[in-house]
């Protein structure tokens, strides 16, 4: 209850801020805008900008003397980031991106068109521009795009004292880092030491003697989804990235890995709903229509398959009209059961909990679950047909159709995403459509087919 109240209080404060900002913009009161925005966290400023209309957003950016810094720019939703960058003076953009690590700059560039990318790249110093361009040369959604070039490196033979002395006089260090990466003479990472372990050890202790057991590396060409899995599986805080020769190329930190996990989960959810994996609340009417209409068209085709099956039993429905009222019950129960299995399967595939080693056991489990659930609801629907409708044989038809469809739904919910995964396709992409089609078609066919055999 406390958490709910806290969320409501935060939402109320956010609404008050938006109203105050809009009032200040309308009155062209730059001082009021500064007083509202300057104390806010970068994420809160980004949320506020996303809530405004394009016109109000543009007016606010022109009036705000504090201006957008790099942290705010990286927090802004990618659907409006390009619009915001175009509305800002080049000097503001330049100052903002110079504050960012290379991984954050790459993250911003990935979602911009070429003119906007050049605007960002042109604002960087030569060394930073080269580093960003090299990162952009790696495949999209790879570790090379995710890593930051700013690392803290020490030779493996150094002692804790030598390392601390070097850190104190170093001209430059990343704003945040978690490990000191140990390298051999060829700049190949061989281990890492946490800052806490280094600071708590005696000065004469060698770094390689207090290296972490969790050390591992990833290749710059590895998919970012694999990187996120490694972080989650082995509870990593950071992970060195190596090039094709095994030399240190950069480092990925836990915040970037968790962002990938969040994006993967969001994409799965959007794809299961059939609205496109890049849909956003900030999208306009045209973008929203484009993202949704393809799957609506696919659903229209599959609905026609169901309609065709029903039309094959027109005589049965005409003879026993009550069947038309009962058909949606069978289809709906199958659809819900299929969605339950499908959601579990897609999530398990994403986390690699569902593999070839345990697939058969999971399929058997889902079949048993479908049979048990089907049996339970079969008894209930059988009683409805007998006691409520006064047709004992109709109760038998309802019961048998329920068992068949719930078993099929459970199996489809697990087998369809498994099959798509084996084909190298995203199991979230079209699983929902296939599963719903199977449960509708088989549910209608089983119910009306059994009715034709038993009742006529």
Helix-strand layout with pairing:
Blueprint lengths: L1 H25 L3 H8 L4 H10 L2 H10 L6 H6 L2 H10 L2 H9 L3 H8 L4 H9 L3 H11 L6 H4 L6 E3 L4 H10 L9 E5 L5 E6 H5 L18 E2 L4 H11 L3 E5 L5 E6 H20 L11 H27 L2 H6 L2 H29 L8 H30 L3 H31 L4 H28 L2
Parallel strand pairs: 1-2, 4-5
Antiparallel strand pairs: 2-3, 5-6
The CATH H-level superfamily of the largest domain is SLC41 divalent cation transporters, integral membrane domain
Question: Rg to the nearest angstrom?
Answer: 29 Å
The total tally of domains equals 3
Helix and strand sequence: HHHHHHHHHHHEHEEHEHEEHHHHHHH
User: What's the CATH topology label of the largest domain?
Assistant: Tetracycline Repressor, domain 2
Give the strand order of the largest sheet, numbering strands 1, 2, ... along the chain.
Answer: 1-2-3
Mean pLDDT: 84
- The residue ranges in which pLDDT falls below 50 over 5 or more consecutive positions are none
Please report the distance between the alpha carbons of the first and last residues: 57 Å
Give the overall silhouette.
globular
Outline the structure in words.
By secondary structure, the protein is mainly alpha-helical. The chain is built from 21 helices and six strands. The model has no long low-confidence stretch (mean pLDDT 84). Strands 1-2-3 form a three-stranded mixed beta sheet. The protein has a three-stranded mixed beta sheet with strand order 4-5-6. The longest helix has 31 residues, at 392-422. It has three domains: 11-141, MgtE N-terminal domain-like (MgtE N-terminal fold, Alpha Horseshoe); 153-270, CBS-domain; 285-454, Orthogonal Bundle (Tetracycline Repressor, domain 2), CATH 1.10.357.20. Helix 16 runs parallel beside helix 21.
